[in-house]
DNA sequence: TTGTACGCGTTATCAT
DNA sequence: ATGATAACGCGTACAA
């Protein structure tokens, strides 16, 4: 690919003049500008952003480190980030870590060597992550997404996971449920998982109901109903579960139907994230909606405007759905919802 | 951030030696290598990939241009591409076009200026795309994903959309359906939409059944049941629909249930893509599964190994599901599947 | 094995 | 308004 010097020669000007045609066109006389543009068009010249970045010491690429793209929450967020970044003239270098710290470290190292202008990242555990101090040492501007740093005060954009899960659990309690379990994917050591379980416990303790241990699934994207089935039997059967993401909840709804367990009559199922598809199902999925697009938008915004960095907590929203109802077989005074 | 010269000084070697410690370590004596590494660690030095790229004229970043990330087919493909690329030491610059040619052009221009080493892209219509000749002129290696160029012979990896849709339609015909409609998102002018409709027509004509016009929805991610409801009435009601992607199908399943239309008894619904979540639903979604991960893997592979470029057609797979069954109210000789 | 010196394509400074 | 030139950080022929 041709360079500025070649363009300059063809246009009969100096390289500096040719350069100005792209970096500061209004500095040139209209006719010389046109000469340069004609020459560059003829040669198929395109400014080399790599050379520009080396010279100006300023990149127009942001890095993005996400755990996965299989959860629509992340892909929606990514799409929003890409739009916002592109509108500001930035591109996005994207990588996924699958929550593995080694991968997180390798990716961050790659981003640093690429000299990205900033990094939006979601790590397993913000308070025990090796990469955040690394980023700070390297003076690379970054914004945590979803993570909620408790100890350190890293810039972050998130929802109040604890309150969100508390409210969701309260909603189930209000419906009359007392045997409510929380279903989670792997990575219980993640900061969000901890906060959500705390929120779950908050609500139950407030209702003087003992919390149950987390039911941990092997996958983030699909639950295993066999883990749940035994708990639906016995003297105190589970009447409601709340999942830490919607994919788990949706797969449970399907499995329950296949197992002959009626949702919501026999088992109420609630999700977390509020992905779009949940609203399309029958029964529709009750969930805690996170503003994933907004979250992405804000993350990029915080990189673009350094002054705006800090902790930004976005509002979540309880989304009702037909996947939850009052428990059957249990007469709630004034609310007789028994089905059998 | 410090540079090689600083490292060299601290290590007591020349800048070239320091450089070799990173570009070609085995050229150095073990003790000098160690000296350099110690110095660079002390300074927090990281090789500048931008400078390296300018010098070597070789990038380790691939560009990726996708229509959207809201369809799991694309996000799964992207995740697979990222893994494969990273294993080879490459990063991914990701952008989405929403099928808009202007956005496609702007993104390609951006990628060219960034001097990416190659580009994986999905365009609206490969045979009428302005960007592909641009890429060829610029001599940027690229691979089309999903697109099926008919006229030109661009490198591409895809499934046989026409055959896939023909087989899916045939399956519905075999079940006894005669009133089968195809439901599509916007962008009917896309190459894949055309091919899939052709496949649909192929199957119907082979069965001496007149094809119906495409039912076009306003969104790629959710169908509008109101467009369908009228066609379920009358003398020749629709008994089956096949959607051009699973999200449309899933939303139709939910809407049908809410409208009191039994799936599959009154209406069989089939999808296309084979996204994972379809298998979790009740009823499970019958679909034509595309190997999205494999497709992404191959696309990167084709960029990494120029000799392997060309047209690569991946196998699709008919996935059965509980969302389709023999039509009710219609006696198929030897197959009396009536429910009423 | 290590050092010297040039150039990758651009922008910024200074001069004209 | 335009031109000459240095510098961004690095890889690599070539020399030692």
What does this 3D model show about the protein?
2 copies of one chain form a homodimer. With 340 residues, chain A is α/β, with parallel strands linked by helices. The first copy, chain A, folds into 3 domains: 4-47, 434 Repressor (Amino-terminal Domain) (Orthogonal Bundle); 59-159 and 293-316, 3-Layer(aba) Sandwich (Rossmann fold), CATH 3.40.50; 161-289, 3-Layer(aba) Sandwich (Rossmann fold). Chain A is 39% helix and 15% strand. The first copy, chain A, has 11 helices and 12 strands. In chain A, the strands form 2 sheets. Chain A has a 6-stranded parallel β-sheet, sandwiched between helices. A 6-stranded mixed β-sheet of chain A has the order 7-6-8-9-10-12, sandwiched between helices. The radius of gyration of chain A is 26 Å and the shape is elongated. Residues 330-340 of chain A have low confidence and may be disordered. At the A-B interface, helix 4, helix 5, strand 2, helix 6 and helix 10 of A face helix 4, helix 5, strand 2, helix 6 and helix 10 of B. The structure holds a DNA duplex (16 and 16 nucleotides). Chains A, B: This is LacI family DNA-binding transcriptional regulator. Chains A, B: GO terms for molecular function: DNA-binding transcription factor activity; transcription cis-regulatory region binding. Chains A, B: It holds the Pfam family Peripla_BP_1.
Tags for this entry?
3 domains; transcription (chains A, B); Rossmann fold; 11 helices; 340 residues; homodimer; DNA-binding (chains A, B); 434 Repressor (Amino-terminal Domain); 6-stranded mixed β-sheet; DNA-binding; disordered C terminus; DNA-binding transcription factor activity (chains A, B); alpha/beta; HTH_LacI (chains A, B); 6-stranded parallel β-sheet
